[in-house]
C-alpha cells in the first residue's frame, strides 16, 4: 500500500503567538481585503472623483486656450474661490461615498450575525471593542482614502499650477482645512453602517434601511430647496428673504450634515463654478457648534447601538 | 502521581438575569479528554462560556490552564480553541482564508497562520475543498472547519460543544475519530460537551455530569460504569437452571438471569469467583462461553447520576 508523501497527522503549533492585544487591526485588514475584492467597489470609487477630473480639465483648457489679460491675469481664474471647488467636489462625491459605504459596510455586522461569526471572533483573544473598532476602522480608512486621495491630488495640482491665481494666498490654511474635512463623511458612514448593520441578520436589510434613511432625508432637503426658491421669489431672488430655519433644515440629511460641516471647516458658504447666477440657491454655512454637536451625537448614537447589539453570548432574561 | 487540572471552579455561580444557570459549582477538570454530560439546559454551554471568560460569575471563581477566568479572558482565549455548537463562519471567505484569519486573530503571524491553515485543513480532511467559500460547504464540512479554526493556533485546551451536531452516522464517526486523534497523545486536552453518551464514551476518558446547573457526578468512565461488589457476567452455551442452583449453593448471589447470561455476585476476588463459576458449570454440565466483570452502561450511570 502506498504511504502518503507527507505526514498528515496532527501536529501542535509551537511557533510564535503575538500578545493578545490590538486584534482590531487583524479585523480591519480582513474587512478591507474583502471590500477591495468587489468589482462594484472600484467602479463607484472611481466615479466618486469625476468632478475633480472635470475641474482639472476645465482649468487646464481655460489656462491654455482662454485669452489672458495684459499682465498675465486670466479673468476666469481671477474670479475663482479655490476652496469652493473642493467643497463642490466633496458635495458631489457624497452620493458615491454613500453607495460605497453600503457596499462595504451594510453587511459588516449583519452578515456576521447571520453566520454566527461573532463566536469565531470573540472566542479568540479579540474583545468586543477590537471587533467593533476593527470594523469601523476598515470602513473609515477605505472612505478616507476614496475622499482623500483625489482631494489631495487636486490640491497638489492646484499648488503646482495655479499658485499665481491665489490658490494658496486666498486661504493659507486650506491644506489643513482639507485634512480636517476629509474624514468627516468617512467617520459618519462608518458609524452609521455599524449601528444599522448591527440591528439586522441580513446585509441587504441593513443596506435597505440605511438607503431609506438616506433618500428620505435627501428628499426632505430637496423640499427645503423648493421652499428657499419660493421664499426668494425665484432662483435669482433675494437670499436674505429665506427664513434661517429653512436654511438650517436644508442640511437635515445624511449628505447635508456633512456638506454643512465641510462649509464650517472650510469657512465658506460655497458657490457653483459652472452654473452661473441662474443656478440653484446656495444656503449659507450652518452654525458650526450646532452641526458639530449633531454630527458627534449621530456618530455616537450609531456606535452605541452597535455596542449594545454586539454580544459575546446570548442573554437569557429570567 | 495526581492528575493536573486544566480547569477548576470554586463555588461558581452564573446567572442570566434572575435565572441561575450554574449554581455553586466546585469542580476540577483533569488533563485528557473530558466529557461534559447533561440534558438540554443543564448548564454545559454556560460552563464553557464561563471558562472562556465570556460571563461574569455572580459568585465564586474559576481558572483555566492556571489563569483566572475573570481577570485573564484574553490570555485564556489565546490558549484555548472553541468549537461552538452552532454553525459559524465568516461570510465571503474561503476555507483557507477563514482558518488563517482565525489563526491571526489568535495571535499567529500572518504567514505562519496561512501555512498552518493549509496544514490543519489537510488534517481535518478539507484539503481538496480549501479554496471553496465556506458558505457552500455541507453540514459535515462545516463541522470540520469549525474544528480546524479551533485547532489552528495549537491550543492546549479544546472546548468542543456538541461536535457531532447534525452529522450523519459516517460523518459522526469521522468527527469522533478526528477528535480522538487530536486529544490522545498530542498534548491537547479537551472538554467535549454533549448529550450523546456514545459520542462521549468513544472519545473521553473522564466525564462530568451536569444537571440543573449543578455537578451530579464526575469520574473516570470505567469507574462510573463499575458496579458495587464486583459482580460478573457469565454467558453459557444455553440456559441452565442447574447452573443457577449450583452457584447459589456455592454462596453466590444470582443478580439476574437473561437468556443464557447470568449476573453473579460472590464475596472475594473476581479470580476466586471465576474458579467457583467453573466448578458450578462443571457440576451442572453447562458450557461457559463468556466470563467478564459486569459493568453498567454509561447511560445507566448517567441516569443514576440524574436521579432517574
TrEMBL record, chain A:
Source species, domain of life: Bacteria
Keywords of the record: Membrane, Transmembrane, Transmembrane helix
Matches recorded under Pfam families: ABC2_membrane_2 (PF12679)
Entry GO CC: plasma membrane
Residues that span the membrane, as ranges: 41-62, 92-111, 132-162, 174-200, 212-231, 288-307
Molecular function terms, GO-annotated: ABC-type transporter activity
Protein name, per record: ABC transporter permease subunit
Originating organism: Fimbriimonas ginsengisoli
Amino acid at each position: 500500500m502506498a504511504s502518503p508523501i507527507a505526514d498528515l497527522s496532527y501536529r501542535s503549533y509551537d511557533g510564535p503567538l503575538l500578545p493578545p492585544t490590538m486584534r482590531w487591526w487583524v479585523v480591519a485588514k480582513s474587512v478591507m481585503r474583502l471590500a477591495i475584492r468587489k468589482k462594484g467597489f472600484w467602479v463607484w470609487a472611481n466615479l466618486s472623483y469625476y468632478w475633480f477630473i472635470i475641474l482639472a480639465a476645465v482649468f487646464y483648457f481655460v489656462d491654455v486656450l482662454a485669452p489672458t489679460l495684459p499682465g498675465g491675469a486670466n479673468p476666469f481664474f481671477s474670479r475663482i474661490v479655490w476652496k469652493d471647488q473642493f467643497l463642490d467636489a466633496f458635495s458631489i462625491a457624497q452620493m458615491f461615498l454613500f453607495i460605497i459605504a453600503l457596499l462595504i459596510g451594510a453587511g459588516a455586522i449583519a452578515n456576521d450575525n447571520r453566520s454566527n461569526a461573532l463566536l469565531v471572533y470573540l472566542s479568540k483573544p479579540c474583545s468586543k471593542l477590537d471587533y467593533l473598532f476593527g470594523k469601523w476602522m476598515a470602513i473609515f480608512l477605505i472612505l478616507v482614502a476614496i475622499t482623500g486621495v483625489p482631494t489631495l491630488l487636486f490640491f497638489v495640482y492646484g499648488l503646482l499650477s495655479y499658485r499665481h491665481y491665489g490658490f494658496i494666498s486666498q486661504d493659507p490654511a486650506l491644506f489643513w482645512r482639507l485634512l480636517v474635512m476629509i474624514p468627516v463623511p468617512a467617520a459618519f458612514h462608518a458609524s452609521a453602517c455599524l449601528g444599522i448593520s448591527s440591528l439586522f441578520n441580513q446585509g441587504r436589510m441593513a443596506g435597505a434601511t440605511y438607503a431609506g434613511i438616506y433618500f428620505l432625508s435627501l428628499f426632505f432637503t430637496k423640499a427645503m430647496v423648493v421652499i428657499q426658491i419660493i421664499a426668494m421669489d425665484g432662483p435669482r431672488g433675494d437670499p436674505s428673504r429665506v427664513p434661517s430655519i429653512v436654511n438650517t433644515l436644508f442640511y437635515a440629511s445624511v449628505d447635508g450634515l456633512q456638506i454643512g460641516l465641510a462649509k464650517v471647516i472650510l469657512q465658506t458658504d460655497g458657490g457653483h463654478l459652472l452654473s452661473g447666477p441662474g443656478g440653484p440657491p446656495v444656503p449659507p454655512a450652518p452654525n458650526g457648534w450646532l452641526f458639530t454637536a449633531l454630527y458627534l451625537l449621530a456618530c455616537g448614537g450609531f456606535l452605541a447601538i452597535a455596542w449594545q447589539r454586539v454580544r459575546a453570548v446570548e442573554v437569557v432574561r429570567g | 502521581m495526581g492528575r493536573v487540572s486544566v480547569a477548576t471552579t470554586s463555588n461558581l455561580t452564573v446567572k442570566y438575569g434572575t435565572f441561575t444557570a450554574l449554581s455553586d459549582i466546585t469542580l476540577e477538570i483533569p488533563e485528557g479528554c473530558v466529557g461534559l454530560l447533561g440534558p438540554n439546559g443543564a448548564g454545559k454551554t454556560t460552563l464553557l462560556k464561563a471558562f472562556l471568560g465570556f460571563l461574569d460569575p455572580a459568585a465564586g471563581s474559576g481558572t483555566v490552564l492556571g489563569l483566572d477566568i475573570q481577570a485573564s479572558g484574553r490570555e485564556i482565549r489565546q490558549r484555548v480553541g472553541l468549537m461552538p455548537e452552532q454553525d459559524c463562519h465568516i461570510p465571503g471567505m474561503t476555507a483557507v482564508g477563514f482558518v488563517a484569519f482565525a489563526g491571526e486573530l489568535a495571535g499567529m503571524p500572518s504567514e505562519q497562520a496561512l501555512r498552518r491553515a493549509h496544514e490543519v485543513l489537510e488534517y481535518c480532511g478539507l484539503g481538496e475543498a480549501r479554496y471553496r467559500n465556506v458558505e457552500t460547504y455541507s453540514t459535515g464540512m462545516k463541522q470540520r472547519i469549525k474544528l480546524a479554526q479551533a485547532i489552528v493556533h495549537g491550543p492546549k485546551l479544546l472546548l468542543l460543544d456538541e461536535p457531532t451536531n447534525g452529522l450523519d452516522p459516517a460523518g459522526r464517526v469521522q468527527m469522533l475519530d478526528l477528535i480522538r486523534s487530536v486529544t490522545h497523545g498530542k498534548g491537547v486536552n479537551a472538554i467535549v460537551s454533549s448529550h450523546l453518551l456514545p459520542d462521549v464514551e468513544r472519545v473521553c476518558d473522564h466525564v462530568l455530569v451536569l444537571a440543573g446547573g449543578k455537578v451530579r457526578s464526575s469520574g473516570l468512565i470505567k469507574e462510573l460504569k463499575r458496579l458495587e461488589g464486583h459482580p460478573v457476567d457469565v454467558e453459557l452455551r444455553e440456559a441452565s437452571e442447574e447452573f443457577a442452583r449450583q452457584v447459589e449453593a456455592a454462596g453466590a448471589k444470582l443478580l439476574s438471569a437473561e437468556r443464557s447470561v447470568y449476573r453473579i455476585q460472590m464475596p472475594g476476588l473476581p479470580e476466586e469467583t471465576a474458579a467457583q463459576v467453573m466448578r458450578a458449570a462443571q457440576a451442572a454440565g453447562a458450557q461457559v462461553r463468556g466470563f467478564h466483570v459486569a459493568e453498567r452502561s454509561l447511560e445507566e450511570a448517567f441516569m443514576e447520576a440524574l436521579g432517574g
